Amino acid sequence: MLLWVILAALTAVVLSFLLYPLVGGREDVDERDAFDAAVYRDQLDEIEADRARGLIGEAEAEAARLEVARRLLAADEKAAAGAEAQSRNALPRAALVVVAACLPLAVLGAYLFYGSPRLPDQPLTARLTDPAKEKDVGVLVARVEARLRAHPEEGAGWDAIAPIYLGGQRYADAAEAYRQAIRLLGPSAKRLSGLGQALVLEQKGLVTDRRALRLARALKRDGTLVEPRILLAIAKEQEGNFEGALADWQGLIEVRKDDARWTSMIEGRIASAQAKLSGEAPVAEAKPAPQPGPSAADIAAAQSMSPDERQAMVDQMVTRLAARLEENGDDLPGWLRLVRAYTVLGRSDDAKEALARAKKQFAGNEQAIEKLDTLAADLGLTS
After folding, report:
1. pLDDT digits (tens, 9 = 90+) for 275-325
2. In a domain, 20, yes or no
3. What is the pLDDT averaged over residues 358-376?
4. 72 within domain boundaries
5. 178: confidence class by pLDDT, cuts 50, 70, 90
6. pLDDT at 24 over 60
7. For residue 183, what pLDDT is reported?
8. Domain check: are 103 and 54 in the same one?
9. Most buried among 11, 50, 109, 157, using CB within 10 Å?
C-alpha cells in the first residue's frame, strides 16, 4: 500500500513539472511587461525634469518623449494581448491542473477497488518455509536447491533432488545431481541407473558404450531394476543386434509379466524384434524408431563429446549399420538412415552408392522406391 502511495505522489510531482510551463509560465511574461511599462513612465518624468532645468532643449525633449511614448504604448499593447490570451486559455489550463491532480488519484482508486492492497508481503524465504506449501513440488525443489547452494557437499540433498529432475525432464540437471550424489555418497544401483537414464534421455535416447557401461554396473548391483535392462536392450537394437535384444526383452517379460506398466511395451518390442529377425515386417509398416545406426539428430547429439570421440562414435555406428544391411538388405528404414548419415557426414559418393544399392534391393516395390526418391530429393542427391 505504501508503495502505491509513493508512486502516486511521484506521478503528481512529475506531472506538475511537465504542466508548469503551460499553467504558470505566462505570469513571468506579464510581470516583465509591467516592469517595462513602469520604467518607460519614469523615463518620461526624467525627460520633463531635464527640460525644466534647461539640461536639454525643447526639440530634444520632444524627440525623447516620442521615442519613450512609442515604447510605452508597445509594452501596454503587449500586456493587453497577454491578458486576453490568458483569459482565453483559462479553461484549458484549469483542465490540465485537474488532470495533474486527479489522474494519480484515479489510478490509486482503481487499484484500491480492483487490487488487493491489504495482502501482506510474501518474501521468498517466507514462502519456502510456509507449511501450507509442503505439497508444492516447485517450492520443495526451490528449497532443496537453496539448501544445496549453501551446502554443496550435502550428498543427501543431491540424492533427493536427482530423481525429481529426472521426472521433470531436466535431464542435464539430473545427470549432474546424480554425479554429485555418487561422488559424495558413493555409487549405488539406483544412482548409477538414474545417471545412465539421464545421460541417455539427454541425448534423445542414444545409448553409447559409456552410458551402457553405467547401466550395466547398475544392473550388476541390482538385477531387479527394469529401466537399465530396457535401455540396454534398446542399445542392442540400435546396434542391429536384434537377436540379443530379443533375448533381453524375453527375459524382462518373464520378470515383469505381472506388471501392467511394462508388459504392453515389452511385448511390442518382442514382436518388433521377431519381425526384424524373420524379415516378415512389411515395408509400409516398418517402425521408424528405434532404428540402428545414426540419424542427423544422433550426429548432432554427439557434439557434446570431444572431436575424436565424436568421430569414432559416428564412424562405428555407420560401419555397423552398413555391415548389417549387407547381411539383411530388406530393412528399408535402415537404408534411409544410412543414406542420410552419409550425407550428413559429407560422404556424398557413399550416399549415392547406398541409394543405388537400396533401389536395386527394392526393385519392383513402388512404395520403397518412392520413399528412396523422396529422400534423394530432400538431400539433393542424384541417382
Report:
1. 877 765 433 333 444 444 444 444 444 444 555 555 666 677 788 888 888
2. yes
3. 85
4. yes
5. very high
6. no
7. 92
8. yes
9. 157
| Residue position matching grid coordinates 482565453 | 88
Quick check: 160 and 169 in contact, CB under 8 A?
no
CA 301, CA 353: separation in Å to the nearest integer?
26
Query: How many whole angstroms separate alpha carbon 3 and alpha carbon 8?
Result: 9
The yes-or-no verdict on residue 194 having pLDDT over 70 is yes
Q: Report in angstroms the alpha-carbon separations of 206 from 175, 239, 281.
A: 15, 11, 24
Domain enclosing residue 209, as ranges: 140-224
Last residue within a domain, chosen from 192, 207, 224: 224
Q: What is the CATH number of the domain that holds 347?
A: 1.25.40
CB 292 within 8 A of CB 238: yes
Q: How far apart are the first and last CA of the chain?
A: 75
Question: Which residue, among 323, 383, 318, 304, has the nearest Cα to 347 in the 3D structure?
Answer: 318
Residue 270 is assigned to a structural domain of this protein: no
Give residue 313's identity as a one-letter amino acid code.
M
Assess whether pLDDT exceeds 80 at residue 136.
no
Q: What is the pLDDT of residue 158?
A: 92
Instruction: Please list, in sequence order, all residues whose beta carbon lies within 8 angstroms of the beta carbon of residue 314, skipping any fewer than 6 positions away.
Output: 294, 299, 302, 341, 345
Q: Calculate helix-pair angle for 189-202, 171-185, nearest 10 degrees.
A: 150
Instruction: Over range 333-351, report the average pLDDT.
Output: 83
pTM of the model: 0.41
CA angle 83, 89, 94 (to 5 degrees): 120
Q: What is the CATH number of the domain that holds 181?
A: 1.25.40.10
User: Is the same domain home to 173 and 212?
Assistant: yes
The Cα 330–Cα 291 span in angstroms is 14
User: How many domains are contained in the chain?
Assistant: 3
Instruction: Tell me if 217 is assigned to some domain.
Output: yes
Residues 185/191, Cβ–Cβ less than 8 Å: yes
Tell me which H or E stretch contains 278.
Answer: helix 260-278
Residues 311 and 348 in one domain: yes
d(CA 34, CA 263): 101
Instruction: Give the model's pLDDT for residue 21.
Output: 61
Residues 6 and 109 grouped into a single domain: yes
Average the pLDDT over 15-27 and give the result: 61
Question: Which of 224, 253, 279 lies at the terminal end of a domain, its last residue?
Answer: 224
Compute CA 167 distance to the chain's CA centroid, rounded to the nearest angstrom.
Answer: 20
The residue type at 348: S
CB of 139 within 8 A of CB of 147?
Answer: no
